Amino acid sequence: xxxxxxxxxTIDAVDVLLGxxxxxxxxxxxxxxxxxxPRANELICVRxxxxxxxxxxxxxxxxxxxxxxxxxxxxxxxxxxxxGTTGIxxxxxxxxxxPSEANAHPHRDCSGKLAVVHNGIIENHTALRAELVAAGHxxxxxxxxxxxxxxxxxxxxxxxxxxxxxxxQRLSGSFALAAVHAAHPDRIVVTRNDAPLVLGxxxxxxxxxxxxxxxxxxxxxxxxxxxxDLAVLHADGRVECYDPAGSHYVPTQVRVEWSxxxxxxxxxxxxxxxxxxxxxxxxxxxxxxxxxxxxxxLVFEELPFSDRDFANLDRxxxxxxxxxxxxxxxxxxxxxxxxxxxxxxxxASEFRYRDPIVTPRTLVIAISQSGETADTLEAVKLARRAGxxxxxxxxxxxxxxxxxxxAVIYIKANLEVAVAATKSFLGQVAMLTLLALHLGYHRGxxxxxxxxxxxxxxxxxxxxxEEILADTTAIERCAEACKDAQTVLFIGRGVGATTCxxxxxxxKEISYLHAEAFxxxxxxxxxxxxxxxxxxxxxxKATPVVVVAAxxxxxxxxxxxxxxxxxxxxxxxxxxxxxxxxxxxxxxxVISIPPVRECLSPILASVxxxxxxxxxxxxxGCDVDQPRNLAKSVTVE
Length: 637
Ligand code: M6R
Known about the structure:
The chain is an alpha/beta fold and 637 residues long. The chain has 3 domains: 3-66 and 84-261, Glutamine Phosphoribosylpyrophosphate, subunit 1, domain 1 (4-Layer Sandwich), CATH 3.60.20.10; 271-468, Glucose-6-phosphate isomerase like protein, domain 1 (Rossmann fold, 3-Layer(aba) Sandwich); 473-619, Glucose-6-phosphate isomerase like protein, domain 1 (Rossmann fold). α9 (322-339) links the parallel β18 (315-320) and β19. The structure holds 5-amino-5-deoxy-1-O-phosphono-D-mannitol. 5-amino-5-deoxy-1-O-phosphono-D-mannitol binds at residues 321-324, 368-370, 373, 376, 419-421, 509, 630, 634.
């Protein structure tokens, strides 16, 4: 997803912009650029297809890795470094127009004096472009963003903030914008609607960015701008904010406690591995403080519900996308089992375009690690209009979902940099597990003793994950046996099937190897045809099938499924409970997890599947932190 950085101040803007862009790389992008005002009435624009490193080289700079000091002087003589203390920078994730230098941001107006960077989608760009072309404007790109540059130019009469304000009234869609003009070398104007933008100021200037990590090196006190508000960043560090009516207001600053080190790899080869290893900590933090000895129910102060309110609910609707959707599927099994409440789980992109049945007696749980997923946010708005109470489950403080939902439950994953969700997924599943216990207890279906017993088992999970992480030899061996396959199938039953859905998504998104998950009971109804019979004679042609076969009520049936696929020539990788001799007799490729209650098994079983996907992706030479075509925050539909 596109990333914006803007800086005006008293030090070199290039280093600040490049440093910020590096910190936004996790969002995924295909080109990068900056516009700088080196002196009054001059604007320089440098853009490159590819990575920030290529942009830095074009600027005669080297970018430092996040968390380290950026160099203050040019280190390459390939191009002169433009001077200047005011500029805007951008990483683009292509939506309108192919990834190319011409479509890379910033985009300029006809005069070449005004430049704009943008995240999101301007929905009425076609009509606006036609209008501006008719008025004599010349366009140089296929992007919706360029419309904003020309529209601001259209209204510009010497006051940049006023021109942006007028242009803003003509724009529909979700967007965050930063505009700079050669005539105003000491200021930047920013605005946003339904897209993230965080502002801040420091001793040497004022900044804005799409996400907090890009500001942390400079300030810990940030401002979240409201929808259609406008702000002027001044080189002396002032941030002037205006509401949509144009009234000036003093913004509230929020202190961010995340350390810069949290954005670094911490000695691991990639963020994904670091984040997988953080999962025991995430679980401990999630569990901590949720159980009160004197009150055997769980502590969910975020939910303003009495027992009567809980009893009055007639169903739960979970809405989410991708990995968060899979967390929702796991949550459904637990809530239905413990709270005896029907739960529907739907991908937000479908939910919002149906005419779903949502009433004031529906509790909606919207899950989004980023809190910025456009489809989920729109589904939340729809549910609220229908009178439902919406609980947002997210990882990001101050994200959009926290503003749209009636109540917010934060998971405790902390900053997740790798595009593939790992620790945030585990945090979501753990929180949904606790929530299911809470609902079960308050609706009278779980006794105090049952809650205590299950909670005691939940407390064992962090140490059990540490056990899995301590020896990954079997996982790596299994990955080696599957890395060259054309396709990998995942099968399981019950919560095992939901674990498989996430395992398959993780594998395909980071290794680009086709993977598909099925309920094991369904394979004979179609998917078993995917198993190549040549595998019976030639092991190199055997189709890998990952079977989640931990101890469960359907264990025997899963065993039968293993035999079934082996008989067709499959190469089975089994995820089984440690010490399982029956599985060991069927396949030599076994990944063990510690014994665990069936309802909690997805929390343990997901970890080896994350490592399995990562090992295959690394063996195939893929960039596991920034997989192709994907973004960390999907802020457009
Ligand atoms: O931020 P969200 O949880 O709302 O994101 C939803 C999906 O885009 C996300 O889970 C995606 O599937 C990830 N790439 C999974 O690793």
